[in-house]
Hints:
Helix 1 packs antiparallel against helix 6. The strands form three sheets. The protein has an eight-stranded mixed β-sheet with strand order 2-9-8-7-6-3-4-5, with helices on both faces. A four-stranded antiparallel β-sheet has the order 10-11-14-13. Strands 1-12 form a two-stranded parallel ribbon. Helices cover 39% and strands 15% of the residues. It is α/β, with parallel strands linked by helices. It is built from 14 helices and 14 strands. Strand 13 (378-379) and strand 14 (388-392) form a beta hairpin.
Amino acid sequence: MENGAPAWKFRGNGGLSAATVITVRGVLSELKANLNADDGRTVVPLGNGDPSAFPCFRTTPVAEDAVVDALRSGKFNCYGPTVGILPARRAIADYLSCDLPYKLSPDDVNLTLGCTQAIEAILTVLACPGANILLPRPGFPFYDARAKHSHLEMRYFDLLPDKGWEVDLKGVEDLADESTVAMVIINPGNPCGSVYGYQHLKKVAETARKLGIMVIADEVYGHLAFGDTPFVPMGVFGSIAPVLTLGSISKRWIVPGWRLGWLVTNDPNGFLKDTGVLKSLKGFLDISSDPPTFIQGAVPHILEKTNDDFFSKIICILREAAEICYEKIQDIPCVMCPKKPEGGMFVMVKLNLSLLEGIKDDQEFCLKLAKEESVIVLPGIAVGMKNWLRITFAIDISSLEDGLERIKAFYGRHAKK
Length: 417
C-alpha cells in the first residue's frame, strides 16, 4: 500500500477484451472511429448487415401488430420457461417442419436471445477438455470469439471461391480427429452470399456421419435466396447426421433488434439425447437470459400470418441490390468478385493490392476508405480472409450506388501510376 491507497485485488479479464478484437462489432467500431468528422457527406454503411434503418426494408405490419397485441394483452409480462413458451416453440416447429421430410416437435425447439446466444449455447456445451470444432474460412467471427472464450480449439476448413464457396470436404476430413465434435456451415452464406444446393448439403451430412460429428447449421439467413439455387435446410439430412439448426426472425423479417432466435435439434435418431448434448444444453439455458416474453408471445402470429408478398418484396430488393453491387464492382479495378451473390446480404471481393499505392493490406484499405470517403467496408481479415473485403448490399439502392462510386473514386486517388 502506497500513500494510504489500498492494494486492489480485482482485475479485468484480459481474455474478454482479446476476444472482442475479432468480432464484427469490434472491427466496425475501429473503422467508425477513423471517420472524418469534417466530411459533410452521409456515411455509407457497407460493412454491417442491418438493413432495418432503410425504409425499403421495413418489416411487415403483421409483425409490428403482433408485438403490440402481445404486449397489450397483459399475458406476456412474466418470466418465460428456460426453453421458451410453448406456443412460440410449437409455431417455430411447424414453420421449420414445412421444409423437412419429418415433423419437428416443440420439444426440439429452444428459444434464444437471437442467433448469437444460440451460438454461445452450443459452443459452450461442446467445449469439453481437448475438444475441437471445425469452422469455415471465411466465416462469421462470433464463432471464433465464443470458441476462444470457451477454450474450444478451432480448426478451419476452406470455402472454395471458384466453386461457389462450397465446403472443401476433403479439407474437412483432413482436419478432423478423435477430438473433433462438430463442423459449422452457414447457409445462405455470411460472408459469401452463397447458397448450397441439395447434393452438396447431402455430402456435408455424409462427411459428418463418416467423422462421427454433428453439423451446426447456421440458417439465420434462411430463405433469403434469390439466385438459381433454392434454399434447402440442413435439417433435411438429420437422419444421416445430427443437425443443430440455428436461426431467428432477425433477417427474414428485418428485425435484428427484437432478439428472438432458436436452436433446433434435427435428430430423428436421438443421438443428441443419447450423448447428453440436450441435457447439457438445458443446463446452459437454465443459467442464461431468455428472449423477451412478449416477443415470444408474438411469434405464432408472425410466423403464421405474414403474407408471402412481404417475403417476395424483400427478395426482389435483395436481388436487385446484389445485381447492382456485382455490376459496379466490375468497374473498380482493384477488387474482384469471384461469384455473384445468390443469397443473404453480403458478397466477398478480393483486393488487388498490386494496383494500389501506399496501402499494405485490407485493414489499411478500409481505414483510409472510412477517413477519405465516409464509407464503411469490413476488411476480410475480420472473417478469416486477409486482403479480401466483405460488402453488404442490403441497403437502399441509392446509398449502395453512392458507396460503390466513392470506392471507385478512392481507387482513382490511390492507383499506382
